[in-house]
Amino acid sequence: MERKVVVLGTGGTIAGTSDMAGANVGYTAGQIGVEQLLSAIPALARATGASLVAEQIAQIDSKDMGFEVWARLAQRCALHLADPLVAGIVITHGTDTLEETAWLLANVLDTTKPVVLTCAMRPATALAPDGPQNLLDAVAVASTPGARGVVAVAAGELHGARQVQKVHPYRVNAFSSGEAGPLGWVEEGRVRLEQNWPLAQCSQALTAIETIVNTPAWPRVEIVLNHAGASGALVDALVRDGVQGLVVACTGNGTIHHALEAALLRAQAGGVRVLRSTRCAQGQVLPKPGDALPDARGLPPVQARISLMLALF
Ligand code: SIN
Predict the structure, then answer these.
(1) Which residue has a Cα nearest atom 7 of ligand 1?
(2) Which atom of ligand 1 is nearest to the CA of 11?
(3) Residue pLDDT, tens place only, 71-92
């Protein structure tokens, strides 16, 4: 029986179009269906020994990503991954929140198969769109024997869900794994692996999927930023509004303006879960004995928020 690679479309610039011929900015994301994206790459059928199955999960700009799409996406991934004929999954996604979706899926999917997110920085109507090559590379990764875990593929680089971050708003190689570096590269349809494939994050995965699908309101976790002149006003307002968790994008090694810190300590004493991350692009908060607010164990703020939401279900 022929192996399959399932390609799930969610929108993004990779499916974006512009009225201005060749434009790289000023386009509308999420316009072209995933079937059409695939059929625009004749090399795809030749490049993989698997048959491709397309499914449209959503058609959005990923700045608007939300819980309903996440739940549907996770559910469809789990269903397809359980099919023995499915070698792996590719997800076409906007670049803006790709790292959040990747980290969510890494935590709720318990699979030894690859789940490969890909994207584009230029719309499909650009003079030199990057989407087709990224999609070709992602399908190559999803059908690579031994590939596993949730990864992202863009501009020839392969990143793990734990490390990947969008670091540039315009250039085509917009993603980085920071100090860890990419897991590897995709070159002419082959993966050159530099590090191990990522392991599944969650042993409770199946329960997690059922929970996130069946719980109408996800736990409310917000991110607050420490900065010069910060106050506790936002935190106090969020607590009054029923927030359940707060991630603080701290300065440096987890430091917080004394006024904001006082509000966070009040929130924590009142039962709100608080985690300290850092607004620094690299490195992580190093915990020390006696820290009154726990650290996010090296996760950047947006990924720490996902972990905290899942912990609060
Ligand atoms: C989006 O995230 O959906 C729009 C931006 C992009 O994909 O680059």
Answers:
(1) 94
(2) 3
(3) 999 999 999 999 999 999 999 9
